UniProtKB/TrEMBL annotation:
PANTHER family xref list: PERIPLASMIC PHOSPHATE BINDING COMPONENT OF PHOSPHATE ABC TRANSPORTER (PTHR30570), PHOSPHATE-BINDING PROTEIN PSTS (PTHR30570:SF1)
Organism: Tissierella pigra
Superkingdom classification of source: Bacteria
Stretch forming the signal peptide: 1-21
Name assigned to this protein: Phosphate ABC transporter substrate-binding protein
Membrane topology of the entry: Lipid-anchor
Family membership noted in the UniProt record: Belongs to the PstS family.
Keyword Signal recorded: yes
UniProt-listed GO biological process terms: phosphate ion transport
Protein's job: Part of the ABC transporter complex PstSACB involved in phosphate import.
Keyword annotations of the record: Lipoprotein, Palmitate, Phosphate transport, Signal, Transport
Length: 300
């Protein structure tokens, strides 16, 4: 029962925006020594399930803070995780509505400037795979697309599959992307598209999970699916090579696969002792193993 309650506590909040959390005990420096049993995370829809899973394990293992450290009070551990996109994660830290922001991209210069005393924690590495449905005839024709071909598909220059190759059917290409303000789209735009914009009728998905579902459900769809999500849905979608480079863990880590991105947690100011205790768990061998089990490349 405890397991179900802990899991429910966190997963329900994955899809609830943290409105009005500014008064919930956000702390920016260790100078405020008042213990806060609750902490909040907001941001990337890719990273939110990861933090949620780790937080669930942390809560199930300890229940109250004194079981984490005997010097902590006997108060229930509360960790709230909400998904709103990388930009929302950075904004929540800037505005002080969340303790931690979750980003699936680099922190922008202007974000760092607004936060000031920023603390960054690189939790892992993800990649954006150019993925299609297993029933797409392209699977049998070729296993790699060039950067130019991807650009033409996502810009709408190639509108039908036979524009890519004459042997393919005259069926419209269904382009699926994340919302334009999300971290995933920013990474894709920078790595692949450059100054060329994606087609206006591309389907914008509210989360990476929704994007992957669109590809799984439509054999004419193509989208930039998270490496972690591909690993979680093996056989349900096919990741293609980019310029002949396969999106493997080795190629992602060594940088030869070009569409990769960091998974980062950020905070303004020093961590409180209870926040540090949780982040120590996130970055521990156990936390890293959970990150890997969810299909991502752990930082360590």
């Amino acid at each position: 029962m405890k397991k179900k309650i802990a899991f429910l506590l966190i997963t329900i909040l994955l899809f609830v925006s943290l409105v009005g959390c500014g008064d919930s005990g956000v702390s920016s420096t260790v100078e405020d020594n008042k213990f806060k049993a609750q902490m909040t995370f907001n941001g990337s829809s890719t990273l939110a399930p990861v933090i949620s899973a780790i937080a669930t394990e942390f809560i199930e293992s300890n229940t109250t803070w004194n079981n984490v450290d005997s010097s902590f009070p006997e108060e229930n551990i509360s960790i709230y995780v909400s998904a709103g996109g990388s930009g929302a994660g950075a904004k929540s830290v800037i505005e002080g509505t969340s303790d931690f922001g979750m980003l699936a991209r680099e922190v922008k210069g202007e974000e760092k400037e607004k936060i000031g005393d920023i603390k960054e924690f690189v939790l892992g590495i993800d990649a954006l795979t150019i993925s299609i449905n297993p029933e797409n005839p392209l699977v049998k024709l070729k296993d790699s697309l060039s950067t130019e071909e991807i650009m033409k598909i996502f810009s709408g220059e190639y509108k039908y599959w036979n524009d890519l190759d004459e042997s393919l059917e005259h069926k419209e290409i269904v382009v699926v992307i994340r919302d334009l303000g999300g971290g995933a789209h920013e990474v894709f735009q920078k790595s692949i598209m450059g100054d060329v914009q994606v087609r206006e009728d591309a389907i914008q998905s509210p989360s990476m999970g929704a994007l992957v579902t669109k590809i799984i459900e439509n054999k004419d769809a193509i989208g930039y699916a998270s490496y972690g999500m591909v690993n979680q849905n093996q056989g349900k979608l096919i990741p293609l090579k980019v310029d002949g480079i396969e999106p493997t863990e080795e190629n992602i880590v060594n940088g030869s696969y070009k569409v990769s991105r960091p998974l980062i947690a950020i905070k303004k100011g020093e961590l409180t002792q209870e926040q540090q205790a949780f982040m120590n768990f996130v970055l521990s061998d156990e936390g890293s193993q959970m990150i890997e089990n969810m299909g991502f490349v752990p930082a360590n």
